[in-house]
Design goal:
The chain has helices at 21-37, 39-48, 83-100, 229-244, 286-289, 294-305, 327-330, 350-359, 377-383, 388-391, 417-441, 450-466, 487-492, 507-512, 555-571; strands at residues 4-7, 14-17, 103-109, 113-120, 124-125, 128-129, 131-133, 151-155, 162-165, 183-184, 190-192, 201-204, 213-214, 219-225, 254-260, 277-280, 312-316, 320-322, 337-342, 409-416, 469-472, 477-479, 497-499, 502-506, 530-535. By secondary structure, it is α+β, with helices and mostly antiparallel strands. The strands form 7 sheets. The chain has a 7-stranded mixed β-sheet with strand order 16-15-14-17-20-19-21, sandwiched between helices. A 5-stranded antiparallel β-sheet has the order 4-3-8-11-10. Strands 2-1-13 form a 3-stranded antiparallel β-sheet.
Length: 593
């Protein structure tokens, strides 16, 4: 069965329609009705708003993918077609047509004369969607539009709560902006307002957001970890965040911890624990030499196992705590096209240098890698004796994809199952190649931090080698080191997850009520008016969790401490045993082999 879902932003719930009939009747009952329902509005726009660009009736075909071989030779050529993606865009096209039919023309003189600015409900501003404000805008002559709007002409229906304000609500934040009431003028279809009121904004409060209209497809949330005290509390909090974030239930959402260890630990369901877990043995060399190598290694083993059956894999880190459903993001993924958060190296030209000079053509290295030999094929086969999919990965790095610009994304990755199955061995192979050269190349490409980010570049280079594109999804996650926002702002901004690391209390509260939690470590990272009270970098992090939380705590700190505290309440504290060495300087990071 297929569904169409619309997300209610006020409750966070997905309202879905079930049944096979949606497949055969969707275009007739939904798309056609929406398009026909907007014909009158579009006709009005043709008369009133001639400057608006026409809406194309047919969508463009999705871009074709390079015809590159699958390194494992186990998958058929990845398809360029995706019915879900196609139907989803047709639904959005219909909604876009309706939104363009709702518009206004703003005039510089009374009676709808003088210069004009055409605005539709497709407009967006930094602080709102389906809105427009005059701050920083000009008429065609260059005259400042702010405070110089004298009359308004309307087009389309007013079903979406169109309102006018005297403040620039899209640029600045106002708790209760003053509304401007329109009054009919002597010109038909033209409205004016009290001369003492300066019109500055128009907002369609109830206009649907494209992110609320999607066709769900199945997805699975994954993360890789080891068994250690450092990972234990994160695993519990990660699971609780998943359970509370109202992930999609139809199709059901999968969840798996990918554990690198010689045996399943006591937190796994296999051993009576609560965390669904896939366990894979360590690589005897690279797992200990560079811990992050475990990520591509265990992902490859999981994908090769055939345990993944969902269409989309959502690959997170253990310190990515989910806050809201990611169903609408997963719905955007189809073969050859994924998504991810913007990486810390977003826009850094050194990434392209590393790709072109060191990786995309291993036999013709130049620039920063001139004279540095790659890991030989016989060495690869010796290191991975039972993994022919890794042996074949080098065939993709033959120079044919050097013109591709790798996408600057990082976790969480949203990628189609077929793509990740093909990418994972290449990801692992490229990570090994980077590990061999990182100490010699790092001084030349310092901005890339190769000493601890080799697997991050391995992922985006594997995607580039196979022609898998990733959209940088703005606002997908909020990191602890980014701008501090309140809980209410985080909810309104539709943040999907946090990337936790530190937590802060308001400074006055910390000194007056909880001085025992104040850290000396991290003082230079304190946001103004705060004190750091917790950090995953400290060996006491699993044991000392500040609680209760004060008013005014920022969004990331709130989510971090709440999920850790509540997970202990629900699951208990991960015990100290052979899998976790305990809360000591030597034991905190010690992993079970």
């Amino acid at each position: 069965q297929r569904q169409m879902c619309i997300r209610d932003r006020s409750t966070g719930d997905d309202c879905c329609c079930d049944g096979e009939m949606l497949l055969t009747r969707r275009r007739v009952l939904v798309v056609a009705c929406a398009l026909l329902g907007s014909l009158l509005g579009l006709f009005k726009m043709m008369l009133i708003l001639p400057q608006l660009e026409p809406v194309p009736y047919l969508r463009k075909a999705p871009p074709s993918r390079p015809n590159r071989p699958n390194p494992a030779n186990t998958l058929s050529q990845l398809s360029n077609k995706s019915p879900i993606w196609s139907e989803q865009h047709e639904l959005r096209l219909a909604m876009e047509a309706r939104k363009k039919s709702n518009g206004v023309v703003l005039y510089s003189e009374a009676g709808c004369f003088g210069e004009k600015i055409v605005v539709s409900s497709m407009s967006n501003e930094p602080n709102c969607k389906s809105c427009w404000d005059a701050c920083g805008k000009t008429y065609p002559s260059g005259t400042d539009a702010n405070l110089h709007i004298r009359s308004v002409q309307l087009a389309g229906s007013d079903l979406w709560g169109r309102r006018f304000y005297r403040s620039c609500v899209g640029t600045y934040h106002y708790d209760q902006p003053e509304e401007v009431k329109l009054m009919p003028s002597g010109t038909p279809g033209c409205y004016h307002f009290d001369k003492s009121a300066a019109l500055a904004s128009v907002v369609w409060h109830d206009a649907p957001d494209h992110s609320r209209i999607f066709l769900p497809q199945s997805y699975r949330v994954l993360y890789s970890a080891e068994s250690a005290t450092y990972f234990g509390y994160q695993a519990y909090a990660h699971l609780l965040g998943f359970k509370r974030s109202q992930q999609q239930t139809s199709p059901a959402t999968g969840y798996t911890r990918l554990l690198t260890a010689s045996e399943p630990d006591d937190l796994s369901t296999e051993k009576g624990g609560v965390i669904p877990t896939f366990t894979a043995a360590r690589h005897p060399r690279f797992s200990f030499a560079y811990g992050p190598f475990n990520k591509p290694d265990v992902v490859d083993k999981f994908m090769q196992s055939g345990a993944a059956t969902e269409n989309v894999m959502v690959l997170t880190d253990p310190d990515n705590f989910l806050v809201q459903s990611v169903a609408n993001v997963a719905s955007e993924v189809h073969p050859g096209h994924g998504a991810g958060a913007g990486a810390f190296f977003l826009g850094n030209p050194q990434v392209l240098r590393l790709w072109r000079e060191c990786i995309c053509s291993l036999s013709h290295r130049r620039g920063a890698c001139a004279g540095l030999p790659p890991v030989r094929q016989d060495e690869i086969e010796k290191e991975f004796p039972d993994e022919p999919q890794v042996w074949a990965a080098g065939k993709l790095l033959d120079g044919q994809q050097c013109d591709v610009h790798p996408d600057h994304v990082a976790v969480p990755y949203f990628v189609h199952r077929e793509d990740l199955t093909a990418m994972a061995p290449v990801w692992k192979y490229i990570t090994v190649q980077i590990l061999q050269i990182r100490h010699k190349v790092d001084p030349l490409l310092r901005g890339l931090q190769l000493s601890w980010c080799a697997e991050m570049y391995g992922y985006i280079f594997a995607a580039a080698a196979l022609g898998v594109k990733h959209k940088v999804w703005t606002g997908l996650q909020l990191r602890d080191v980014e701008a501090k926002i309140s809980w209410e702002q985080g909810r309104d901004q539709d943040i999907k997850m946090i990337h936790m690391g530190r937590a802060w209390f308001p400074q006055a509260y910390a000194h007056r009520v909880t001085p025992q939690w104040i850290h000396t470590e991290g003082r230079d990272l304190r946001p103004p008016g705060t004190e750091q009270v917790w950090c995953k970098c400290n060996w006491t992090a699993a044991d000392q969790v500040p609680w209760p939380l004060p008013a005014g705590i920022d969004f990331v700190s709130n989510v971090t401490l709440t999920l850790i505290h509540d997970s202990y309440q629900q699951f208990g504290r991960p015990p100290t045993n052979k899998f976790r060495a305990g809360n000591t300087p030597d034991g905190y990071h010690k992993s079970f082999p």
